[in-house]
Amino acid sequence: MNDSTPTAPGALVGLVFVSHSSLIAKGLVDLARQMAPTVRMLPAGGTDDDRIGTSFAKVAAGIEAAEAGRGVVVLCDLGSAILTAESALDFLDDETRSRVVIVDAPLVEGAVAAAVAAQIGGDLPAVESAARSAGAPHSGGASVQAPVPATDTQSGPARDDSTVTRTVTLINADGLHARPAAEFVTLAATLGVPVTVNGRDAASLLAIMGLGLTRGARVELSATGDGAAAAVDALASLLESGFGEA
Q1: Catalytic entry in 20, 26, 58, 70
Q2: Would you give the distance in Å from CA 123 to the centre of its chain?
């Protein structure tokens, strides 16, 4: 299990993926790590001897390894996996248990959304919300937001309410597939200005991937208010770079 823990800094919310199949759990870690390379993600799949089923010991060990002080989100594939995870929580001390959340959401979509939210430094409620958004019907998914410092709310210069719009053509061969979509959303979440992409929230991974944008697609970026132009330009430049893909 230790070889599944990233060696990068662990001051992020951790994730545990509980599946009846060890291959599914390990594969999901591989997938999510493409978008969240420094998040502690542990697979807890299969029985103790890697047969189909779940393992209390694997779940408990995964939670312990994923916890770096900021909490752990646990996602499960089927109902009995949730029961196993709940049993594992019963044996944790109260302090640790208070920082572990089991989320009932689609395993793959929830894991990817949660991983990106954790990667940009989201706290436990933010990562939990991102995971739950994957199960919301007709939802574009919750936005992932980077932590922002407190600001002085006293009166200041008048706010700029003008709207900036720019259209870019995707040039990378596979369009906004998972890895570049995660890179795009991660940048959008740090800009401090709400931006839309073809009318969808630029800081929502599930919303962006749901657009199905392929090579040659026209992408309309739009933002309103202070910093709108800089935010749109930053995202446009990333799209125009092709994300480093041929």
Answers
A1: 20
A2: 12
